Amino acid sequence: MVLSTREAEAAAAAAMGEQPVRVLKRRWVMLALFSVTSMANAAHWIMYAIIANIATRYYGVSDMAINWTSIVFMAAYVPLVIPASWVIEKKGLRPAVLLGCSLMCAGSWLKVLSAAPDRFDIAFIGQTMIGVAQMFTLGVPGRLAAVWFGAKEVSFACAVGVFGNQLGIALGFLIPPALVGDHADLQKITADLKLLYYVFAAVPTAVLVLLLLFFENKPPVPPSYAQAALLKQQQASNGSGANGHAPAGTASGGEDGAASKANLQYLETIKVLLTNPSYILLLFSYGMNVGTFYAVSTLLNQIILNQFPLDQFPTAIEDAGRVGLTMVLMGVLGSIAGGLVLDTWHKFKETTIVVYILAVLGMVAFAFSIGSGNMILVYVTAGFLGFCTTGYVPIGYEFGAELTYPHSESTAVGLLNAAGESIGIALVLGAGEVVQIYGNEITNYGFIGALVFGLILSLFIKNDLRRLSATKQQQLQHSQLGADSGKDHTKF
């Protein structure tokens, strides 16, 4: 009897000294748990900025102080991205995600204690803790997709992982304006804030319990040939056998040496990435796109109220939240669409450029709609802008993973996020001053200029798809050996 396809693949893998590849059904559970964790974290990011006029009056602070509750997420990420990426890469997904969720829970409950007009400092400390916690979620989608999902699913899985973050941002736009009213009585605002804080603390607490019970570090077998080749390379560099264990006779004291070697390899990886010209171009291009989205989101309340004052538009605060929600929900669709396009056609650079051109057009349209004073048009153009800017995130992640293969996805994504956070800080600080002094028009011109600059950088990125090339090569080798195994082996 001729061997079955799975048996032939196993025989081919054995002939090459490798494990057969296989995807497991529980990969979707891991993805869902991570996405909910990321959602719970991201919901905190914009919660003060989207009700900036209420928060400034309640806590007695300036607009810039409220802007810093958003900026702190970016500022915390930049200096700590390298150690966070090290944890994700060297310790694994489970320790990293558990650490991030635990820190998020602590910060969330601390914010519960800040529901009083004289406790802005406590609110800011809690917000900072949650901002630090996001380092252990932003860099995970690409890594989780590569570790758990097959070659034909990895871009879609990455997009779903990013979806959790985007859904959290959407909730951050929607829930605070809905729960916290612009009351003249500060005691009523205190009651509203307590409810908001309890909701935003209960969710990550429940998620932490689920992570402890069900979230796994990695599957027992690799899900793709590219991942199998990476594992084999890592085992060889660590001096381990095919089963991943150290050779017999290795002293347990050698673990310190192995850890030191791993640290040196990690630093070498960063050096290699930062000397890759195409990756550097992507770094700044990604930063301009994502940084612009961060800045528009942070200043959205101020931009909307500049054009739609409350005495003429009583629902302007709620509208600001719903406009932000529209941006993010359309961005979710953009993310999923981008992931499907990449998985289907593998046109990474082409997709990047098309989406970037649309983002520039979307920003131009949004700026025009704000100036027109037509709120319906603002909703429409904000949705289109969100589809392109937020939808670009998983495309950037996957393009970065292609350009830097075989190096860790978490490190490549971590540096991309650091670029987005750094540029986001600069844009929020600069635009935050400009919007107060010169108004919306000059501010929006600045955002358009940032996106145009990012588009120009994208044009010069080389279409060097290393991971895709490795996957095709591995598939070819296995199909050839599998065919030979199917012909030469019989089952009795």
UniProtKB/TrEMBL annotation:
GO cellular component, one term: membrane
Keywords assigned by UniProt, alphabetized: Membrane, Transmembrane, Transmembrane helix
GO molecular function, one term: heme binding
Pfam family, one: MFS_1
Annotated transmembrane regions: 28-54, 66-88, 95-116, 122-142, 154-175, 195-215, 279-300, 320-341, 353-370, 376-399, 411-430, 442-461
Places the protein is found: Membrane
Topology relative to the membrane: Multi-pass membrane protein
GO biological process entries: heme export
Domain annotation Major facilitator superfamily (MFS) profile: ranges: 29-466
Protein name: Uncharacterized MFS-type transporter C09D4.1-like isoform X4
Native source species: Thrips palmi (Melon thrips)
Lineage summary: Eukaryota, Metazoa, Ecdysozoa, Arthropoda, Hexapoda
Gene name tied to this protein: LOC117644516
